[in-house]
Write a structure and sequence with these properties.
By secondary structure, the chain is an all-beta fold. The protein is built from no helices and eleven strands. The protein has strands at residues 2-7, 10-13, 18-26, 28-39, 46-51, 57-59, 67-72, 77-82, 91-101, 106-111, 115-120. The model has no long low-confidence stretch (mean pLDDT 96).
């Protein structure tokens, strides 16, 4: 069993910043890609940013230059620093992790429960 615990969402005004955190725990052998997705009301879930085990990153065009993803491999954690937030960033943000589980080694993709970010204008 692997669990993801997210934190850091909330209500902010446009132009402000927030930091999301996600920590993985459980039967983990190794973690490959960690990322953040978001889903706004009435829209499909979309990739925001992701980071590989070697530190390579990629971002959605809409957040480049404003959001920064990072990870702490020792803590099995991933973070999303969001700056210059806009009302269109309002969404539920989901942590997503691709990992190798222990026991018989097998690949798992795990999602967090989601954390709401609301940006007011």
């Amino acid at each position: 069993q692997v669990q993801l615990v997210e934190s850091g969402g909330g209500l902010v005004q446009a132009g402000e910043s927030l930091r999301l955190s996600c920590a993985a725990s459980g039967s983990i052998f190794s973690i490959n890609v960690m990322g953040w997705y978001r889903q706004a009301p009435g829209k499909q879930r979309e990739l925001v940013a992701r980071i590989t085990s070697s530190g390579s990153t990629n971002y959605a065009d809409s957040v480049k230059g404003r959001f920064t993803i990072s990870r702490d491999n020792a803590k099995n954690a991933v973070y999303l620093q969001m700056s210059s937030l806009k009302p269109e960033d309002t969404a539920v943000y989901y942590c997503n992790v691709g990992l190798i589980a222990t026991g018989p080694h097998r690949f798992l993709e795990v999602w967090g429960q989601g954390t709401l970010v609301t940006v007011s204008s």
